[in-house]
Amino acid sequence: MRRGAWSNRYAFYLATVGSAFSLGNLWRFPYVVDSNGGGAFVVTYILLCFIIGMPIVVGELMLGKLSRLSIISATDQISQQSAHAWVRKWKPWKWVGVSANLASIFLLSFYSVICGWVLFFLVQYLVHMFTGIPLADDLFNILMKNGWLQVGLMSVHLLITTIVVSRGLKQGIERLSTLIMPLFMALMIYLVFKSLSLPGTVDAMRFLFYPNFSYFTSETLLKVLGHVFFTLSVGMGAMVVFGSYLRDDTYVPRSGFKVTILDITISIFSGFLIFPIVFSANINGDYGPSLIFNTLSVFFNKMGLGNFFGLIFFICLYLAALGASIMLLETSVAHLIDSKRFKRNRASWSMIVFVFIAALPASLSSTVFKDMKFMDLSMLRLYDKVLVDYLLPVVCLGISLLVGFGLTKKQKENLFIREDEMDSENLYRNWHFLVRWLVPAVIILGFFSSIFY
Ligand code: PFF
Known about the structure:
Elements (H helix, E strand, L loop, with lengths): L8 H12 L2 H13 L3 H29 L3 H10 L4 H5 L3 H35 L8 H10 L1 H20 L2 H27 L5 H9 L10 H12 L6 H7 L7 H29 L10 H12 L3 H35 L3 H20 L15 H28 L2 H8 L7 H29 L1
The structure holds 4-fluoro-L-phenylalanine.
């Protein structure tokens, strides 16, 4: 099937980075760094983004570009065309695609709860524009005590997402990303600049970059891997869909490299923004998922025109999260359109019913399901753990094997080796080694150490 293509390269980067740059960088990165001891996590994260995450980003884009299909059909088609008999005969490939789609639905369900929180703060900054904004702790209490408010906010978010997706990918994503990304970047630079002038900056930098590996437990490797996959949007079929819309002349390795670099930069920026505030205002304790909400409100409260900047920040954060949600829904909608011949409208609305049902327990995890805990985790944190620490690494293991062994040498070389690209043969050899051997080995090591130690 022939697909539409991005109208220009800029639109592709904005949309891809727009979906990668979102709650994972701004909301999740600071709190997982905080609860995993800082520097050791950050340094490992940066390293693994390059040697594990980037090869998979490139691999997923390739799968999409070669098949012009969404992930389930792409894994099916590619495995059948493989030169290796064991790849053609191995049945579970289909499950790699199915699990990736499940992961995107699952992620959207708890993502939409957090989007609801962002929406709540956005509205608070709007209505308290000219008065003092209540303390973040109080606002959080209101949210945590009112599960149905969270359900309402989550539903509003899902409704907006579905309306955008049912109107079509190009109009939806391109327009949105082109609009918000540059504005958000500029705002972040300004806020980071302000935050770095706080007295806690030196301590924050030490915390962020001094690698104290005594905080590393047997589970940390898997946690870092999961976070790398989460922020780079791999393991959910999203990059396959992006790849399927790439123009024929796009050089995939460069796209993968740029997406990775930008994504890391934005995460580090969000560390620069949050941790000087944490250390200057002595914000102690395990805030977990509420960390950015607590720190940022302290910051905005003290800053000149703080309410105004707070409002703009939460609008941008909400739009970035909406862009990501659109992409998450699009991955499963693309599958229904490709292989089940659904109309876009019907596909979008039927998918969202599942997402809504899955999101209910997560929205009610601090009220109705308060006492329902597994491994001492609330439903919301359990969703996060199952998805990020287990499901994404499993799917990425499958994808790296499919790309490493399933794609033929010719298919890979055609996409990689170009006369007009410097050193592309060398680049190809390195990437191939990583995706075929190192990525699977590190993921298996992550599982091994978390299970057996
Ligand atoms: N990478 C996004 C984040 O960091 O928040 C999460 C994500 C968005 C994953 C969109 C997949 C996707 F399709």
